[in-house]
Each structure stands twice: as C-alpha cells, then as structure tokens.
Design brief:
alpha+beta, metal-binding, Immunoglobulin-like, EC 3.4.11.2, 5-stranded mixed beta sheet, 8-stranded mixed beta sheet, metalloaminopeptidase activity, zinc ion binding, globular, Neutral Protease, domain 2
C-alpha cells in the first residue's frame, strides 16, 4: 500500500486548522511538594509531544481454525449497492479440537449457514452480531478433519460505520462508483479494498494477515463490464438473463486481505514479461498512453527478480486504475489497484511518471504477499521493503542523483512526522492498527533498510533477502525472522542493529565538530537526542577528509553519547564530511566555514552533500557572494540543484538579482525539465518585471502543463488589459495544474462572474485537486459575497458530509467557515460536526469554537 500522497495532503489539511506543526519542546511541570517535609520535589519534565504512547499490547491473532480455501459466487444490486454472495469455506482446526467457528463478517444479512457434504446441506445454528458470525459445528473436529461451510449472505457496505487512516481513507471493503450512472463523465465501477481487515465487509472470512488461503471467484455482471481478480482467468460464461459470469482461480495461497475484484468498462492493454501475462486495465480514453504509464513494469519484474534471486512468484501480473480509490494504490496478489491519478495523457506524461508507486506495489508481491507480516504490529516487513524498492528502482533506472533525491524526500517525510510522533518501527502497542500506516512504517522503514544495506554490503544484503524470502515463502513472519536471515547470511549477531532501529523509537540527533591542531584532526560527536525515550546509538559511519584536493575515507563507529575520534592527516583539511555516504537516518549539525561549504558543493560529489552545502551557504555568504555563486549553480547538471538555486535566488533582494535575471530567463525558456522552467517563470514574475509578458504568453502555449500553469500565473501578475480574455481560453481545460492556476487568480481577481466556473470545477474536481480548489473557492467567497448562494452552500455541505475522502470533507468544512458569522452557517457546521464519525476530523472540529 502506498500512502505518501495522502499523508502529505492530510498533514496540509491538519495544518490549516492547527496553524502548523508545533516545535517539540520539553516544558517543566509545576514542582510538586513533598507531603512530609514540605520541600519542593525535584522538577519533572513533561514528556515531549512525540513521546511513544503506552497503548494496549496487540499480539498476532490466535489461529483457532485454518482457512484453507474460499470459493465465492457474487452478484450485485447496483441501485441498493449490495453484494449477493454464496461463500464456500474449507477449513480445519489449527491445532486443538473445535466445535465452534468464528468468522469475520461485517454488516451482512445472513440468509443461511450450512455444512456441505457433496450436494447434501446440513443447516447449522449460528449467532450473528453484525461483525462476527459464530457457528455451532455439527461435531468436534480435530486438526486432521477438513469441513466445508456454505454461507448465503448479502453484504451492505454502505451501512457500515466508516473508519480509516491517512493511508486508507475508508475501510468498508466494497465500493460502488456512480452506481446509477447519474454522475456525468464518471464510469460505473465496482472495486474492493481489503487492507487492513475490510474484505470481511464483502465476504465472510478469517480476516487476519497470518491466515492464508487459495480461492475461486465467480463474478456475475452485465456483459459490457470487464472483471479482474487474483490469479488466473479461467473462463467467461454468458447467462440467459443477459449477464455473464467470469471465473478467476487463485491456486497459490495468500492472505485474505489481498483478495480483490475490479469491475468496469476497461481497455485491457496487454504486455508480457518472459512468458508471463502482464496487463494494464485503464479507462478507454487512456488506452494509447497505458504503456507509457505502466510500460516499465516488465523491466521492473526482471530487475527485482534478479536482484532478489527469486522470480516473481504469481501466475500473472495485472494493474488496474479505479475511480475514487481510498488510497494511493494496493498490492493485491497478482492484481494491484491504483488511484485514477495514474491515468495521464501525452502532455501530462511530460511532467510526471508514476514509476515509484508502480515499483512499490510490485515489490509487495514478494514482501507482503509471498511473505506476509503475521500482525499489523510488524507492518514494516511489508511497507519498509516496498518503500525501499522505490529507491532501488530509481537507482537502477535513473541514476544516483535521482535516487539520492528520493532518499532525501523520504527522510524529510519521516523527520517531519517525528516532530509530533516517535514510535518503534515494530510496535505492538498502538491505539488502532490503522495508525501503523504512517511515515514510520514507510519512509523511516525504507531508510533503515538502506542503512542495513550499507552496513552489510550489497552482496550480503540481497543474499539475506533471498534467504528470508526462500525460507519463509507462503508464510507469515515477524521481525525476528528477518534478523535471523541476515545473521545466518553474514555470521554476525545483528541484534544491536534491529533493537535500536526496529524496536526502539526515535533517531540520533548529532552535533559534530572538528578541529585541526599540530598535525592532528579531532572529530567530536555528541548524541543529543533525549535518551529517556531514545537509545544512545551504535553508528558505524564513514568520514571523508580532503587534503590538498585528495579524498581519504575513514570508518568510525560511534557508541557513546560523547566521543572523540582522532583521524590521521598530513595537512589542514579542506573539508571534513561526516557520514560521507549520506545514509544516516537522523539529524546532523556540523558547523563549517563558507570556504569549506563551497569546497563541499564543488567536490563532495553526492547530491545530499551538495544541496546541504548550498542551503548552508545561503546563511554564510554575503548577498553579493551568493549572487556570484548562483551564477554557476543555476547551470548545474541536476535539475533539483537548479530548482534549489531558483528558490535561493527568490529570497535575495531584488537589487541583487540583476546579474541572475538573464540566466533565469534562459532557464525559463529552455531548461530541459518542465518543473524547473515553471519555477524560473514564477521567479521572474515575483521579481515583478512586466517585460517578460511575451515569455509568459509563450509559456502558456508550452506542452508542459506545469509550464503553462506558471505562464498563466505569471501573465496574470502583469495586470495586462487582456488577462481575462487570455485566461478564458483555458477554462475548458480539465488538467489540474491549469484549473488550480486559474482558480488562484479568479479567487481574487475573477469577480462574481466566475461563480459558474467555480461551481463547474468543484463538480468535476477530485482528490487533492478538489482539496486545493476548495481553498481558492473559500477566498472567492470572501471577496465575492454574491457567491454565498443556496446552491454553493448546498454543494459545500454535501462535500463536508458525504465525500469519501476525509481531507476533502475537512476542506469543505473550512470553506464554509468563511461565512461562520452567519447563524445558519454556524448551525450547519454544528450539524456536520455532530454527524462526522472520523476521529481525525472530530479532533480538529472540536478545536473550532462554534
């Protein structure tokens, strides 16, 4: 499961209400008074806001029965959004004799439960509480006895209470999209989402990650629909009533949460890897670009299979795009599901590729599906590996700088989250299993694997992964089994590594200094993290030292809170680069002179060291010196360096930028990267020179939507008399970049006549695009009281109460607050708050005084 996109949006939405993330500060509590002596007690520091919480222990689920096989026959009532199902479950007691069976079955109507013996059915007694189905078996069965249960039921997913997380915004399992065909420009679809334990909302099962089953699925739908499920497509049979039944068979065992269906009118674009079927299911409008979106999949399959020494283990690999998905993507066995954002036209492909998320879900086919975490407490055994696959693929396909940029982005996501939350990666004490889907399990987990790879070396790392996969295939695992695979491969006891990185909270916060005196280099390292909640780390690292232009690398191992290392040198170093591989998960404060930083930028080589040097030089150099440096940096070979240079240039006073302006203009006109061209255009517009009107007009015609959107915003800032005329020519565009650029201008300068445009866009927008559009509409309402109409309020109220994405509901609530001085709006907001069930929103809404 990939959640990065949604977690970032969730953070942004939360900040809109809370005013941003608070800085971690340990405040002192008021001193207590000792009851006998009357003397002040020792002051006790309050725990930091990120301190790990002591929730109840969550073990893996006890296996009472073993679910061996599931056969499902399903059909649908689109109008009621029901699934009619007959489930045949083959089970046996796991170890101890049993005369009762308890199944997860959420929100069903149970019509009958029978024990089957061939075609003979024996009715069984049961108790059903809406969540658990408890069946009295006809006798006591031993672990040598198999039995077959048939359950006739109706699933009603829309009648379930909604839960979810930042990664998976809803958990009702089965979703009907545009079921009555009443929404224009939206296809009718049905799809499922099982993680964490939501598949039991559409079929009865033992909904636990430490269960494994084979399966058969008979899907009856109207003949115009295409179906997809796990495993192999066996046949399609036409029925007398005009429907068809598609039969899918999964002969290799997998966890119940990985069972999937997707139903819709799809173009199926065929590809292959070796002799394996690889298919891409997209809406017909994207048939021609499907291979440009997903076309690296066969190369990924080959790359990962060879790296791991374990060939892709399933009978096919399909990827399907669905509307209104509740996550970024999901790694269902042999059939991954993706959000609609992956569907791109030719122009959009100029600015975007989705290789990261595609690699992520594919790597799960090994880590998560072939070998599965035994409990949600061990989720990083799935997600950390999938996260790290993005780095591996980027490194292989796009090179070291792109991989380093990805690494920095992931590290930043974890460090941002660590300001308010620090938990062990493997954490048995959580309030809700959905809390596991965070930047710890993903971003931190991926960075920990990177450190492990650096420590043991590439050959040992991938040999260990091969051992882990081979020894644990088609089974469930906990973190000790990963550790033992590495120990058995390397011969080294790695408990110290797994303890501090997987089982303990936090990260090292280091302060580093170096001094050269009398021919000796002393490197001092302080571990400054709060060791009440975090360990003193053992950190094997490399330190690079440059003397007279030559680099020497030294291995050190930090084991103490305060430690000094004496490194051999012959002359005063030009640069000391701590953690020269830039692989440490943590923070490092290392003061350097401007000369050292310039040397680092020009000579250190790695992207992370280069970007860090540029950011520090902005603080150390005079404005004139910075301008001189940027003249070269703006021509750097790597796009992210040029982007950062544009940001730095944008923070300089306008009078200092005359020599940079021609360089920025050339970037705006001809940089190979659309994102960089767009950034240069925006910088020119911020500098306020109307002389670039022609450049903005040309940018508006650029093939890159990012550049065209920047051109729109740049031209809008010139206040040219034909602005409205030129912008109006883009109003039929559906691309999100263009729509949001127009919305930014129309919110302030469009006037009341743009009301209809805003209403149309809000009806068509989706996901994050709708979230940001609502921000602009809130500004539009504030400037144009005429926009306060029953139609607008009704739309916002509907979004705030019914939209399936929690952050869109939050944005609509926030937009309504623009007119919270009106009594009727206050009452509406109170009603929305009273009816909201999502705990994340309630926590924020309750902070708002109404």
């Amino acid at each position: 499961m990939n959640h990065r996109f949604l977690s970032i949006v969730g953070l942004a939405a939360a900040m809109a209400f809370t005013g941003g993330c608070s800085v971690n500060k340990q405040t002192k509590a008021t001193p207590a008074v000792e009851p006998v002596t009357g003397k002040p007690a020792v002051e006790v520091a309050e725990p930091p806001v990120w301190a790990p919480k002591n929730h109840a222990f969550n073990p893996s689920k006890t296996r009472v029965h073993d679910l061996l096989h599931t056969k499902l026959r399903v059909s649908f009532d689109w109008d009621k959004q029901y699934l009619h199902g007959i489930a045949e479950l083959t089970l046996k007691p796991y170890f101890y004799p049993q005369n009762k069976l308890v199944l997860d079955a959420k929100g069903f109507d149970i019509h009958s439960v029978n024990l089957m013996n061939g075609f003979d059915a024996k009715e069984l007694q049961y108790i059903y509480d809406g969540m658990k189905l408890t069946i009295d078996l006809d006798k006591t069965y031993t672990r040598n006895d198999k039995y077959l249960i048939e359950i006739d039921y109706t699933a009603k997913p829309n009648e379930l209470a909604v839960g979810g997380s930042d990664a998976i915004t809803e958990d009702k399992g089965l979703y009907f999209i545009n079921p009555k065909g009443e929404e224009p420009n939206k296809p009718r679809q049905i799809w499922t989402q099982g993680e964490t334990e939501a598949n039991s909302a559409w079929f009865p099962t033992i909904d636990s990650p430490n269960e494994r089953m084979t399966q058969e699925l008979y899907i009856t739908v109207d003949q115009q629909f295409t179906t997809l499920s796990n495993g192999t497509f066996v046949y399609s049979r036409k029925n007398p009533n005009g429907t068809k039944t598609d039969y899918w068979k999964m002969e290799q065992a997998h966890a119940p949460y990985l069972t999937m269906m997707a139903i819709g009118e799809y173009a199926v674009v065929k590809d292959k890897w070796r002799d394996l079927e690889v298919n891409y299911y997209v809406e017909p409008a994207y048939e021609k670009t499907a291979k440009k979106i997903f076309g690296n999949t066969p190369e990924m399959l080959e790359f990962f299979s060879k790296k791991l020494g374990v060939d892709y283990p399933w009978s096919k690999y399909s990827q399907v795009v669905v509307r209104d998905f509740v996550s970024g993507a999901m790694e269902n066995t042999s059939a991954s599901t993706f959000m609609e954002d992956l569907q791109l036209n030719e122009r959009e492909l100029l600015d975007k590729n989705w290789d990261g998320i595609i690699a992520h879900e594919l790597f799960h086919q090994w880590f998560g599906n072939y070998v599965t975490t035994e409990s949600w407490a061990n989720l990083p055994l799935n997600e950390a590996f999938a996260n790290y696959s993005e780095y591996l693929w980027t490194e292989h396909k796009y090179g070291a700088d792109e991989a380093a940029f990805h690494h920095l982005d992931e590290l930043g996501q974890y460090l941002d989250e660590s300001e308010s939350k620090r938990e062990p990666l493997i954490r048995y004490r959580y309030a809700d299993r959905e809390d596991m889907f965070d930047s710890h399990s993903y971003a931190k987990g991926g960075r920990v694997l990177h450190m492990l790879r650096k420590y043991v070396g590439d050959e040992a790392f991938f040999s260990s992964l091969n051992r882990y996969l081979t020894q644990n295939k088609f089974s469930d695992v906990e973190v000790a089994e990963l550790r033992m695979a590495f120990e058995d491969t390397t011969g080294e006891d790695l408990m110290w590594f797994f303890d501090q990185w997987f089982l303990r909270a936090g990260h090292p916060e280091l302060k580093v200094s170096h001094t050269y005196q009398n021919g000796a280099l002393a490197l001092q390292v302080w571990q400054q993290q709060d060791t009440i909640y975090q360990p003193v780390y053992r950190l094997p690292l490399k330190v690079a030292v440059w003397e007279n232009g030559k680099k020497a690398e030294h291995s050190i191992e930090i084991t103490k809170a305060n430690q000094v290392f004496n490194l051999p040198v012959d002359a005063e170093p030009q640069l000391v680069l701590f953690d020269s591989e830039q692989q440490l998960l943590g923070t490092v404060e290392h003061a350097k002179t401007a000369e050292e930083l310039e040397f680092q930028f020009n000579n250190a080589g790695g992207l992370a060291a280069k970007l860090a040097a540029l950011e520090e030089l902005e603080k150390e150099l005079s404005q004139q010196e910075m301008v001189s440096l940027l003249q070269g940096v703006l021509k750097d070979e790597f796009w992210a360096v040029r982007n950062l240079a544009l940001d730095v240039a944008g923070r300089l006073p306008a009078k200092q930028t005359e020599t940079l302006e021609p360089i920025v203009k050339r970037i705006a006109e001809s940089d190979a990267k659309g994102e960089v061209r767009a950034g240069a255009i925006m910088l020119l517009s911020e500098w306020g020179d109307d002389e670039y009107s022609e450049l903005y007009k040309k940018a508006m015609e650029d093939d890159s939507y990012k550049v065209a959107a920047a051109g729109i915003l740049g031209y809008a800032m010139t206040e040219a008399p034909d602005i409205n005329q030129r912008l109006a020519s883009f109003e039929k565009e559906t691309n999100e970049e263009i729509v949001l650029a127009l919305a930014s201008y129309y919110a302030v300068k469009g006037g009341a006549k743009k009301y209809d445009w805003f209403m149309k866009q809000m009806k068509n927008a989706k996901g994050a695009g709708l979230y940001y559009l609502l921000q602009s509409y809130g500004a539009f309402m504030a400037v144009n009281p005429e926009a306060y109409t029953p139609e607008a309020i009704g739309m916002l109220a509907e979004l705030a109460q019914e939209h399936r994405l929690y952050y869109v509901r939050m944005a609509a609530f926030q937009t309504l607050m623009v007119h919270s001085e009106r009594p009727e709006i206050v009452e509406l907001l109170k009603e929305i708050r009273a009816n909201e069930q999502d705990k994340r929103l309630l926590e924020l809404y309750n902070q708002v005084a109404l």
